[in-house]
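To fix ideas, we now present one chain and its tokenised fold:
***
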Amino acid sequence: MSLEALTRLLPAYARDLSVNLTNLADETLLSEQQKWGTFLSCAYAVGVADVIQHIEAASAAVLSDEAADAARSAAAIMAMNNVYYRSLHLMHNQEYASLRASLRMNVLANPGVPKLDYELWSLAVSAINGCGLCLDSHEKVLRGHGMSNVQVQAALKIAAVVNAISSVIRAENGRIAQIIPQAAQ
């Protein structure tokens, strides 16, 4: 399985997504670990099995087991944090923001990969999950450690394309699931 196989799952109307996926896989703004960890964390954030399978296969040549686990953990911890912090940000009652979260987040202190990589993956997942507070927080850390705006943008583009591809594949799988029972009748 590879990204080529993933692009073959996309219908003709999603050709732009195929081209974008190929271009992002070839980009050199991020290190290979940063790039493939972003792809993997975003695939897990969206949670479409076909996309996860193909991106895991494509990233296996680059990511160590520890880095792959860290990418998965970025998706997991941000699934929790993005809901919690997005809610605090959206609520008019600011009392909640002053309360201690008391949510376990130990992986943030020791993710098993360089902090910069983990922050990048957390930013990309936060984009998928729509948490502006988390996006601002992770972007500030990334920029403070010397990451350029075009590098941050590269991660956001990966998040956007993985999310879009996942949406198309989920929709197509649903459409096919509807067609098969009708054809059997």
Notes: The chain is about 75% helix and 0% strand.
